[in-house]
## 1
Amino acid sequence: MPYVRNGHTWIANELIEQIFAKGKFSKRESQIIWVILRESWGWLDKRAKTVKKYGKEIRKYSITRRPISYTQFSERTGIAIPHIGKTIKGLKARKIIKEHYGYYKFNKNYDSYQNSNQSYRNGNQSKEVTEKVSKSYQKGNLRLPKRKLKVTKKVTSTASKGKPEKKQRGLKESKERLNKERNMILSQIENLLSQFPPDIKEMLEEYTENARLENKTQRISLQKRRRLINELYLVWTGCNHPILQEDFKKALRVTNNKQVPNVNYVKKVMGGIVKKRSQRIKGNGHT
């Protein structure tokens, strides 16, 4: 049975009443938003500012505590990956969520949301067409004005040059390339994490989180996150004995407590552990 004491997400009743209960979002949008809320407000951040509620100190993440790929969204919601991208793009355009290198944040200021039915048409030609059509309807003429044909010729002639199309195609290709690169890095990170035991995975998340908080902007790129995990993976592969693997866990735990996300510091702590053990073995041999 689900109980609050086993884990819950802090969300204001106002958001539930004004947004979710009134059906402001579509089914897919709601599924995406609930995943983001679960991975952000559903976790406690030990380093965040405390908020006292009901006599308890609450520290919740304002953004997702880890990057979320389209594949992970699809696994959690059951939505196909192509629809995931379109839904997230629409939520970002309406300023409902924010995204940076796979980290997502829900905008709780619902007054700043933009409607999905807003049209963003640019150019004088479209304005000219709408003005002429509205004037003709005001005069009682249900037919479109004759000059409308000339306007359409201008529009088609400018479109035939191909310059706006090439620019839009280039922007679309660059976005697709960035999305492919981001998804590729996220899959590489997932593959690296799958090589570690579950208890080490949690420590790796804290390790990369310390690296993010160490930065002035409190952000970390996917490339750096992959590099940090890969460095520790190389050290882990060298621990081909259970004793050395326990030494690695102890060193990583000490590194996280010291909040020093550096692989050289991990190696230094491991060396100290091995040295103390060898001295202890020598001391027992002399006795």
## 2
Amino acid sequence: MSSARPGYPAGVSSSRTGAAGLLTPALTMTGAIALALALATVPAAGASAHDALESSAPAAGESISTDPGTVSLTYSDTLMAIGETTDGFAVQVTDAEGMHYESGCVAIADSSVTTPIALGDAGGYTVTWQVVSSDGHPTSGQYEFDYSPATLDGAHDGLTDPAVCGEPWAGEPDGAPVDEPSTAASPAPVDEAGSAATPTPAAETSDSDSAAASAVDADLSAAALPGWAVVLIVLAGLGVLAAIVVLVLRRMRAGGDDRR
């Protein structure tokens, strides 16, 4: 037989103890679920953190007076590059007018990225970068530096569009295709005295030239005869001439006798 508790009508039992007994396991289960969710979100938050830019050259806000030739960026962890490809990586350097002065090529080494640049006129430049973090996600950002050269000699002309690696850019060959190399003439040989010897061109020979050369050789040969030979030749010539004269005179006399 049940007895009524003080303050409660007879036949009515108190449910406070039963309710507390039911709520205690429910609260315990809720706390366990909340703790599990909290623990599950901790590594997820750590994994979602991308690599951060730790240093750069030129540095953010730096004022330089000479063209460094490159922009180098260093991050908080090793970047994720797949083989020899640089997909997902880009570094652009632009002036206040949006002209581009980067080569379009990037070199990746562990946590660093480098790209060649060729700056133009003095003023502010913006470096805009994108890399692939060690967690495999792309991350990007930008910063500015100031360029104040002592002279504008050698300033490069920027490109209106981002440069493509391997194609003409603001640097050498200064936005123009490289000329085909020309065949340079061989230098003249230098003699022992130190002066360059003048090369003699080879002349083409013809039949008339050969004949003239033979005549010249004959004249040279005649001029080379000794004196006694020349005297004999002259005397022989005079003898022949005298014989001709005598023969002519005899014929003239014979003709005169016949007429008589």
## 3
Amino acid sequence: MRWHRLLYGYCSLLLLASPIWAHRESHPLAGSDELGGQQRSQLRPLQEPSGPPATPPEEGDGSAFIRPVIRPQPESQPGQGFQWEPALRQASFFLGIMHAWRIATEPGTRAELRGPFFRDYIAAVKGLHGWGDGDPFIVNYVGHPFQGAVHGYIQIQNDPRYSRLEFSNTRAYWTSRLRALAFAAMASTQFELGPVSEASIGNVGKNGIGAGAVDLVVTPIGGVGVLVLEDVLDRYVVRRVERWTTQPVLRAIVRGALNPNRAFANLMRKRVLWHRDSRPGVLEP
């Protein structure tokens, strides 16, 4: 039906236009001008003291318990929080590529585009049951973890606090990868069951066939596992090759071949495959 095709096109364009509904993280005190003004007025005497220095209170006089201690709060620096707008834009680009591939290569997906959108979509979501979905091993346990790794790298490259981290057994590194896991889980759920998903485009699971929990679990968890493996290879193999040779073509090939999902995530932000946030390009010594 014509209305169904128009609705499908609208939903696809809506997700691809993610900057409209993306938002940025802000400082906890942002938007509270009154509180900020009071805090600044209280801080001013501490920052610009006038008159003789105050003598410390004598021990036991009780003044330390009633005199407020005001510490200046660091102002939020632009670009230091997670960058939702570019992250959602890149994830939407990746989502569009995956759905375009499905429509181009799966006759069953194309056939389901002609049905009633909302009724078929709801039936597909309700059809999710059990663990398996009927896909071969390589799809569920290789392809989907790769998908999760790409989403994980999209999260990392848009998280300025952690984007330059390389593999290390540190709290900062594992915190970063847990954040990537959360983003990959959110993206995987959208791809399986969301408004622009396999359930809405192609109605996977509509007849109780083809939809299981395997992808919802394996995609983010296996994806972060693949991501950590690529981090290990980048630090202990790719860097060794870069110390061994200054030949830029070889360096670029090794970077891309041993980190394919990071390379694909680079493409989503219009960077070269071999780009690294943690170090210069392949032409640098």
